[in-house]
Amino acid sequence: MRTIRILALALCGLGFAAQAADAHAWYLRSNPAADARLQRAPVEIRVSFTEPPDPAGSEIQVLATDGRRVDRGAVRATDEPNGLAVAVEPLPDGGYTVAWSVLSTVDGHTTKGSFVFAVGNAPLPAIPDVGPAVAPPLPAEIAGRVLSFAGITLAIGVGLFGIVVRPLLPAASRARESQLILLAAALLVAGPALLLLDQGTAIPGRLALLLGVRALAGLALVGALRVGPFRHEATVALGIVAAVTATLVSHAAATASVLEVALDLVHVIAVSVWVGGLVALGWTALPFATVRNATEAKALGRGVWRFSLIALVAVSTLVTTGTLQSLRRLVLPQDLVETPYGIALLAKLVLLGAALVFGSLNLLVWGPRLRRALRPAGARAGVVRGTLIESVLLALVLLATGALTALAPPAQASGAAYESIQHVAGLRLHLLVPSAQPGRNRYVLRVHEGLRPVTDAQRVAFRFTMVEHDMGETELVAAQRAPGEYVAEGSVTAMFGTWKVEAIVRLAGRDDVRTVYSVSIGAGSSATAARVLTAGPFTLIAFADPSPVIAGAPFTLHIVVVDGKGDPVAARTVLVTPSGPGNAAAIRAVEASPGRYLAEFAALDAGAWQLVISLDGASAAYALAVSQ
C-alpha cells in the first residue's frame, strides 16, 4: 500500500511535465539552402532545426560581404515544426552569410552555425570562422545541477530509508530526519534558482516550467513534514517528481526515446536510494545507536543489513542502467580519456567503485558481526567509519554527475548528414559532412590527440573514390579554420552512391595517419533523386543540383555516363534539350571529370519538363518537376 501511495502522489505531480525532446537544436535545412545560387532574391530566410527552438532567445543574422546586416531583426516561429524565420531587406545581387544562434527549449543550451547563399552571378561568400557549436558549461550551471541532484537524492533516499529501515532502528532521531528533509527542500529550491540565474531572461519557457516544478517540489517537502504517518511516502513522491524534471532535460531526452528516458529516471532513483539512504543512516541512526548489550547490537545489525541489501539492489540497477546509457553515448572506448564527457564519466565510475568497496564491508563484515553480537563495539566503529568515507566519495560522485549532465556526450548528434569518429595512431579523427546531397559540399575533419586539438598538422587532405563505379580518385586539401578543425570544399561527390573518403593527416616526424570513411551520398533524399537511364549502349545516372529545382533559380544537371562494364565514358559530346511549359535552349554539357558531365541551366519556368540527354546518336529523357 505504501508503494501505491508513493506512485499515486508522484503521478499527481507530473501533470506539469512536458514531453522529452532533443537537448540541442541543430541545423537541419534552410530556404534558401546552404550554398544556393538564386536568380531572384528571397524576402525572408527560413531555417529548420532538429528540435523546437525558442524564438525569444534565438537570432538569425543575414550579412552582406561588407558585414552589413540586411535582415529586419525580429525572429519568428514558422508553421513548419522546429522552424524560425527572419525577414530581409530587398537584396541586390551578391553573396550573403546567414549566421544563426539558437536557444534550445529543453535545457537552455545554445547552438551556433552559419551557411551562405548568393543572388545572381555573384560568388558565394567564404565560410566564416565560428566558435564551438555548444559553449562549455558555466560554474553556475554545474553548481545548479549538483544542488538539484543532491536535493533529489536526499528526498528519495531519506524518505525510503524512513519507510524500510528506520522501523528497525528505534534510536534513530526523528528531528535529524526532519533536518535532512528540510535540507533537501532547500537544495531543490537553490538548484533551480542557480540554473535560472545562469540562463537569465532568455530561458526557454519549457525549461523554466520544469525548473519551477522542481522548486515547487522542494517547497512542498516542507509541507510533507506535517502529513503525519505519510510523510515518508510524500517525501519519496516529491523526490520522484523532481527526478522526472531532471530527466526531461537530460542527455537521455535528447534521443527522444522513451526507453532512454526511462533508463535515466531509474538510474537517478537508484543513485538516490543508495546515496540518500546512506546519509540518513549516518546522520539519523548511527550517532544514537548503542551496542551496550547483544539486543542493541543485533537491532543495529539488522538495520545495517537491511540497508545494505537495499543498497546492493540499487547498485546493481545503477550499474545496469549506467552501462546501457554509456554504450549509447560513447563512440569509442578512448572517449573515456579523450573527451570532457568521458573524463567526467570515468571519474564517476572510479568514485562509485571506491564507494562500493566500503559499502560491501557493511554488507559482508560489519553487519554480520553486529547481528551475531561479535565484538559489537569494533563492528559499530567500522560501520561508522565506512559510512563516513562512503558518504564523502558519493558526494564527489554528485559533483561528477553535475559536470557530466552539463557536457555533451561524444555520440550526441551534431546535425551533420554524415558523422563518424575513428581512432588511428593515437589520433582521434572526427569527420563531418553537412549534406548528403550530391554536388558542392563541405568536409570537416576534427583532429585531436587526447584532449588536445592538433593545430600543427603539415597537411590534411581527403581522397575520394566511388564504390559503385570507377570514377578515378580525386583529392581535396583541407585548411585549418579553427584549432584542430580542418575544412575542404568541393563538388567531388557529385553522384548518388557510396563514396570512400580517405582522410590523410601529416605530422612532423611521423608517418602519415590514414583512415577511410564510407559516406553515402543521396541517402534519405526526399527531393529529386538520381535516375538511371538507358541511352543505346550507355547507362546514364542523372540528377539535378540543387534539389528540388525552383522556378527562376539556376541549377545543374549532373550526368554520369558508364558503359556496359560500369566504367566511365569520357570525351563525348553530351547535349541536353529541355522540353516543357516554357522556352529554353539546349545546353551542351561540360565534362568535369572522366565520365561526369555538367549541364548548367540559368532557370526554367514552373511545371513538368523533359530533359532529353543525347550522345553518340542515342538519347534518354530525364523527367524534372520545377516547383513554383
Structure description:
The chain is an alpha+beta fold and 628 residues long. The strands form five sheets. Strands 9, 10, 11, 12, 13, 14, 15, 16 and 17 form a nine-stranded antiparallel beta sheet that branches. Strands 18-19-21-25-24 form a five-stranded antiparallel beta sheet, with no helix packed on it. A five-stranded mixed beta sheet has the order 20-27-26-22-23, with no helix packed on it. The N and C termini lie far apart (65 Å). Mean pLDDT is 82; it is low at 3-23, 127-133 and 523-528. The chain has ten helices and 27 strands. It has helices spanning 2-12, 139-164, 174-199, 205-224, 231-247, 258-285, 294-329, 335-338, 340-371, 376-406; strands spanning 27-31, 36-38, 44-49, 59-64, 71-77, 83-88, 94-103, 110-119, 418-424, 427-433, 441-449, 452-453, 459-466, 474-482, 485-490, 497-506, 513-521, 531-535, 538-545, 549-550, 555-562, 575-579, 587-588, 590-593, 596-601, 607-615, 618-627. A hairpin with a 7-residue loop joins β10 and β11. The longest helix has 36 residues, at 294-329.
